[in-house]
């Protein structure tokens, strides 16, 4: 079964304190859903073309379905409510190749 991944790119971070509240709740939700953070805050990034180097997060799940269910979970929805107004990120759930 192919793994599932959350890929998030944050173009700018204007309210780090509110983001910290989201991070705490999101981390708990991801862990409860079986997710594993592969890259996050402090990871080195080299951006090319129109790439954004501000912050990139990569989380792995055992399956695509598990990744979708984690996003839809009540715990993660509670975390999303903590994001600041006007917050911008590019978030995707993708299926691995195998």
Automatic annotation (TrEMBL):
Listed InterPro entries: Dimeric_a/b-barrel, DUF1330
State the source organism's domain of life.
Answer: Bacteria
Q: Domain named DUF1330: which ranges?
A: 3-97
Pfam families xref list: DUF1330
Q: What is this protein called?
A: Uncharacterized protein (DUF1330 family)
């Amino acid at each position: 079964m192919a793994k599932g991944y959350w890929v998030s790119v944050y173009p700018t971070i204007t309210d780090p304190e509110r983001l910290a509240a989201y991070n705490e709740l999101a981390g708990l939700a991801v862990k409860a859903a079986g997710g594993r953070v592969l890259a996050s805050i402090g990871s080195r990034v080299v951006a090319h073309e129109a790439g954004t180097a501000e912050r990139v997060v990569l989380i792995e799940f055992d399956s695509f379905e598990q990744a979708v269910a984690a996003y839809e979970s009540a715990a993660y929805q509670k975390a999303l409510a903590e994001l600041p107004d006007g917050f911008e990120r590019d978030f995707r759930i993708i299926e691995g190749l195998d």
